[in-house]
Amino acid sequence: MAYKTLLTVVTDQELIAPTLNAAISMAEAFDAHLDVMCLGVDRTQTGYYYAGANAMVLQESLSRATTEAEELVADARQVLGRSDVRWAVDHGVAQLADVGRHVAARARFADLCILPQPYGEGRGVELEPTLEGALFEGGVPVIVSPAAPVSATVAPKRVVLGWNESSEALRAARCALPMLMAADVVHVVVIDPPQHGPNRSDPGGMLSQYLARHGVKTEIDVLSKTMPRVSDVLTRHAADVDADMVVMGAYGHSRFRESILGGATRHMLEKATLPVMMAH
Length: 280
What we know:
alpha/beta; ten-stranded mixed β-sheet; two-stranded antiparallel sheet; 9 helices
């Protein structure tokens, strides 16, 4: 698999530069086309309008979101114009509850999506449904860039790959293959492997064999769950081995037929200080 179409979504002017710079670096590394979606978000909740509000309130919110989208396009074109990658910019307007659907419609035709960390100070409420739309409805792997600038996103030398034998973790490994093949070492991390089952005597062995046949240099790290959350153990181990990136499956649950991030996945993204590549 090669990354030939990349997508990023911008909804906040303050996040344009770091998000686009990460996406541009990725497009340069893989000679890929970069699509940028500038989305003006109507963050009002129509069900909570005060009594007597009329259509003028809706029109004012829509106009504000349209202006915001046009400003995002102008700023994005300035950043992209300084690069040598092939790119295209599109824009639109969406209500907060409909952000995921708009993002998914574009993400379906991308190989990889690069998005900013959805949690933290100054992060808008629309960043979470943007990520969920790409992952669950769009079905595309996502690299989540941390709030702090990290230079190793494109070509990580040491990668931590969370492995629990789930289909989500396997798909994440497959989607990350171009980067795993270029890494110096990939740590396949197994936390509290099952005591019963066909792989109990060789946890992570079949995955390592699969990766090795692609030329990936792997090490299997079997760890105990010494902290309350698996994500805490994975994050600490990434720091211990001086990793540049974490690769893991994205887990969620259904809410009225819409998938939303599960607690473990959300916690990982809240605490992440490294780029995290996820797939569902």
